[in-house]
Amino acid sequence: MEEKKDALREALFYSQKQGYDLIGLDERLALEAYCEDYKAFLNAARTEREAVAEGIRQAEAVGFVPYVRGMALKAGDKVYRSVRGKALMLAVIGQKSLAEGANIAAAHVDSPRLDLKQLPLYEDGELAYFKTHYYGGIKKYQWVTIPLELHGVVTKKDGETVPVVIGKDPEDPKFVITDLLPHLGKDQMGKNASEVINGEALSLLIGSIPYADEGKDRVKLAILSLLQDRYGITEEDFLSAELEAVPSLDACDVGLDRSLIGGYGHDDRVCAYAELKAIYETEAPERTAVCILADKEEIGSVGVSGMQSTAFETFMEDLCDSQGVKLRHCLEASFCVSADVCNAHDPLYPEVSEAPDRNGAKLNYGMGICKFTGSRGKSGSNDASAEVVGTLRRIFADNAVVWQMAELGKVDQGGGGTVAAYMGNRNIDTIDAGVPVLSMHSPWETVAKFDCYMTYKGVKAFYKDR
Ligand code: MN
Ligand code: MN
To answer: What does the alpha-carbon distance between residue 179 and residue 162 come to, in Å, rounded to a whole number?
Structure first.
């Protein structure tokens, strides 16, 4: 009788298994090798521009070529288009016509950070600073007293664009935003956490030696003189610059068992890399495989390089034109995995997500599928249909991809969005799926290696079997 009951349980209950109980030694080794490559990618890609540049470098090494409008394309051809150096789209042409749709995976490569203001340099108390305006959703108090680097470009009046990277090379100096000592923090500590650090006080300390001269702003002058020598720029050049302060923290293993990876910008370069690796290994798929690394997701997917931009349609239309297919017919038959990170259940903060083993994603349980995101009753969410979830469920079951359902926190606890809604609006069946993350949007986020690997495996299976 007991035995019969257990069999019934086994047959009827949905139960999830810990990922490490599901893989053998071969996959364990593959997982470790994959994560070594991912850490190297993350270290080479601190910004959206660097992620695009690194993606192009790697893609060209495996045979991708820049798409030239009007190019004849045949099954197996590998092409890419850079969207002004800030977003990237790659495609491997399929055996079937684009009229039967493409398999699209869309991740984003921008991450929360501190952008320099357009006139950033000032001196106060004989110290020089760069003023910033934060980009994306951050807890401001996490960005003080950590080492920061500057990455970006300055476009001069003559049109020349100069790349700037300061703080990455071990020989380089770094930057910091200072905080109040606890001894004098009585008033500060009584404030609401969103006000502990004032947005206008997120200024990088950049120097303290005055120029050997009379007059005011001598430290500022000395800094400008350094910048002139090294980069040939003046204060006016900052007006047309795009400089991003990012954590000066390399990705590395976390935990005695080395099962986790700490790093800046896992959201969403961890999914971007999964897509890249998957498309590098996709040869003449049945349907055309498309990999998108979008920009501007963290501020609403807006702008020319964001997922709402018609840069996507333009690329897809070019591909469709080469086969005499109407773009809209292709999109209608396409399927998009919006590959973005989801929230992992954090035992230190159990109150914000459902109990483990229910609807929250957990580390080491595989790729997290989010049927919906949004907030206050799924508002602003793509909310994939049962059929769309079913499609991925079938593909993952056929390819031994370990996955789990994910939810962005308890009902009414908050929420968020991804590029999924913008793909859905284009009449493309779309679903969110990606890597569960701890401390999302912090300067140093944590992911589990197992989930990184399964996300790559999931995207690869999707390219092959949808
Ligand atoms: Mn994201
Ligand atoms: Mn994000």
So the answer is: 32
